[in-house]
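## Example pair
The file below holds two records. Each record gives the amino-acid sequence first, followed by its structure token line.
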Amino acid sequence: MYTKNILPYYFLVLLVGLTACADIIETDISAERVELVTPMNDLVTNTRVQNFRWKALEGADYYKVIVVSPSFDSTLRYEIERRVSGVQFDTSITPGTYEWTVVGMNDAYTSDQNTRRFTILDDSTLNLAQQVVNLVSPAEGTVLSDTVVSFLWQAVANASEYKLQIASPDFTNSSFMVVNQNLTDDFYTTNLAPGSYKWRVRAENDISVSPYAVGNFTINLVTNLEAPALIAPVNFATVNLPVNLAWTADGNSVRDTLYIYTDVNLTNEVLKVAVVNTTYVFNDNANTVYYWRLRSVAADGSLSAYSETRQFLVP
């Protein structure tokens, strides 16, 4: 009788204790402030690329950079609100007056905030050399599961067009280039094969160009390949050398991997070979029982399940 009443009580105490411990793990940073480094307060410049820097705050797991115009007291628009894991963030900002802050955050607390003010003047020279194109999508390191890819970047003031280049796997050789386009829009959609890519965009006008902004992404299709189906020799067959192996494979495969072993546990591998056809001539030792199986490989590197395992005897 007492056991039935007391155990739920202990479980409740334990649950409350664990919850309290979870709160204690996070450092209370609500009264702390992130120390801002650059841009300096009341900066006036015609350089649109701003390098936001701050010092790490103990207890913060990540930071939020917030830039508003014209001020936090009379905000007309949020220019930037970005989560950042490190202590720096670079971006290009249009002319105007701004205030900015960085707050430290963890799963339980948000720090207090310092604010600074800066002004970016309109550069009448139209020089893009100090501008930066902000790449929007695909985001850095994205893995896509579709071959139709849409590229988007932020428009740059005074730019008349943009140069978009896409290469696979990178830009170390001109033969890797798959797209090289001049565009008046700040977006582009194309169809690409599975693989690893780098892309870059720069702004251009009649008198100048900006530096390239570079990103990378991967296209990795999820292909559900059927496992190969073994044809010959039949299971438990006795055959003479050389042995003609045959099978069928999924039409979406680009090659098959053939495995041959000399033990039923498939640990003593005597052959592993990539085959682009669906036949293979095997010639090894006589007086041996062999076990064989296959699996298929798609263009994006995804694998099928293994086929059944068959055995044959070479007398």
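Second record, same layout:
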Amino acid sequence: MNQDRLSRRTFIRNTSILAAGTMAGALADKGHAAAEVNRIVKKGRINQSVCKWCYRKFSLDQLCSIAKKMGIKAIDLLGPKEFPTVKKYGLACSMVGTHGLTKGMNNKDNHAECISKIRSAIDATAEAGFQNVISFSGNARGIPDDVGVENAVEGFKQVVGNAEAKRINICIEYLNSKVNHKDYMFDDMAWGVEVCKKVGSERLKILYDIYHAQIMEGDIIRTIRDNKEYIGHYHTGGNPGRNEIDETQELYYPAIMRAIADTGFDGYVAHEFIPKRDPVESLAYAVRICDV
């Protein structure tokens, strides 16, 4: 290929940066970052969100302002104390935190603490008018997978009625145990699907983290299509490295987003990658390619 000719992905990236209104060095001053951003979302088939923890250089106010101007609809993984800030910008919290990820619902010893935190999060989320709370399987710590399934089912059955009454989704997150979360139990889709089937509630769903799933199983689009009724939320991330979802990594997100949209999914897709370059330029690119 002629080196002077831009590749398709490079063209998309460059036009995304232009659409975001970014200029070299302009975003070094965090106080002016939001002023340099224009709307990127045009089609809106995917309800996009962004995880606050990936953008620590920005305050929540700054990230909300940037997100609002880009056309992002929500901020992911917050707690009730942060709800007033997102509401001030007309945004939602797309996923509300509950208990920790290593001590989860696969172990009966954790049930009292986890269920209490899930129930409190459900109540606060419903009062705020949002829709999702997170949960985790927890680490195995010697518990066999099938026993972990039964324990999780027993635990979730104790709280899912509250979720149904408040119309809130409990989303169990799929994480990889190969690179980032050693010994985490829910590291293959079959485990989470089995839990959801046995609980038997439309309010228990899976948080399908595409980065983690790519590391463990791959076959992302087929998995999305085959398990669409069990997926309540998505996270993005580049692999390897959980960095930008661009031409530097192995997942092609435009095709993945089209597959999600084609299932009729009307929840949120939250960007959970850690930018290595300018964070607003990287987010602008991600929003652009996921607006399918």
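Notes on the second record: DSSP finds eleven helices and eight strands in the chain. Strands lie at 47-51, 74-78, 92-96, 132-135, 169-173, 204-209, 231-236, 268-271.
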